[in-house]
Design a protein that fits this description.
With 130 residues, the chain is an all-alpha fold. The protein is built from six helices and no strands. It is elongated and about 70 Å long.
Length: 130
């Protein structure tokens, strides 16, 4: 009896092992969804999107999961989320005001160290350029 089930167990084991090779949060399509190469626009925007992709979007899989689909500057500027990006006004843009270590009361990224000074400057410079 056991020898008859051996192919089934081997098949099951191989499927389990190959399913565990994910890079991102929930499924095998996440890597392409969060890829900064999807962003289009100026190099300054692409740099901004790379920071957001690496430091923010990859964790925001619930309420803010749609951020992964914001691959152009206008999508960030016209988001239904209040004050997400205010052109020329980074200090009042929600993205900046939520950053821990850079803004009073900031709490992002949650449970991770603050973003680097260079990443912070990329975000601020892009918003200032709008």
């Amino acid at each position: 009896m056991l020898s008859k089930l051996r192919p089934f167990y081997l098949f099951l084991l191989l499927n389990l092992l190959t399913a565990c090779g994910q890079d991102y949060n929930s499924n095998s399509f996440d890597a392409s969804r969060y890829s900064a190469s999807r962003a289009t626009g100026t190099q300054q925007f692409i740099n901004f999107y790379e920071v957001m992709s690496d430091k923010c979007i990859s964790c925001h899989t619930g309420t803010h999961s749609h951020w992964a689909d914001f691959i152009t500057a206008p999508q960030w500027q016209t988001s239904w989320e209040s004050n997400l990006v205010l052109p020329g006004d980074p200090s009042n843009s929600t993205i900046v005001s939520r950053l821990s270590g850079w803004s009073p009361g900031g709490d992002m990224p949650k449970n991770f160290p603050s973003i680097s000074a260079s990443d912070y400057q990329i975000i601020v410079d892009w918003i200032n350029s709008l």
